[in-house]
Amino acid sequence: MKQKDENRWVEDVLNSMDGAAKARPAEDLYGKIEHRIAVPFTKGRTISLTTFSAAAASIVLLIVLNMMALTGNSRKHDNGRPDEVSSVARYYDITNESEGLGL
User: Fold this and answer.
1) Is 44 contained in some domain?
2) Structural domain harbouring 59
3) Which residue in 19, 59, 101, 103 is deepest, having the highest Cβ count within 10 Å?
4) How far apart are CA 49 and CA 51, in angstroms?
5) How many CB atoms lie within 10 A of CB 40?
6) How many domains does the chain have?
7) What sign does the dihedral 86-90-93-98 (CA atoms) show?
C-alpha cells in the first residue's frame, strides 16, 4: 500500500505541469540584448574616494591590530613569569634542556 501511495505521488508531481503555458520572453528582448552588446564599453567601473579611503583605513587598522596582537603576545612572556607551556613541562618533568629543546 505504501508503494502505491508513493507511485501515485510521483505521478501527481510529474503531471502537475500538464497544461501549463511555456514561458515567453518579451517581444523586444532580443533587440535590447543585441543593442546592449553593440554599444561599446566606454566607462569603467569606479568607486568613490570615500569608499576607497574607508577600505584602505580598514586594511591598515587590521594590519596594526594584528601586529599589536603578535607583539603583545611576546611581551606576556617577558614579565618574569614562565609561560604556560614551560610550566606544564616542568610540572610533568618533561624538560630536556640537555638536548637543547629549551622548554
Assistant:
1) no
2) 49-98
3) 103
4) 5
5) 4
6) 1
7) positive
* Whether the Cβ atoms of residue 84 and residue 90 lie closer than 8 Å to each other: no
Q: C-alpha cell of 57?
A: 583605513
What per-residue confidence (pLDDT) applies to 103?
Answer: 46
17: in domain: no
Ramachandran bin of 102, using left for φ above 0, alpha for ψ from -120 to 50, beta for the remaining angles: left
Give the number of residues written for the chain: 103
Tell me: the pLDDT tens digits for 49-67?
999 999 999 999 999 999 9
- Residue 54 identity: A
- Residue 98 is classified by DSSP as G
Cell of 81: 613569569
Identify the three-state secondary structure at position 47: coil
Q: What is the DSSP letter of 82?
A: P
pTM of model > 0.85: no
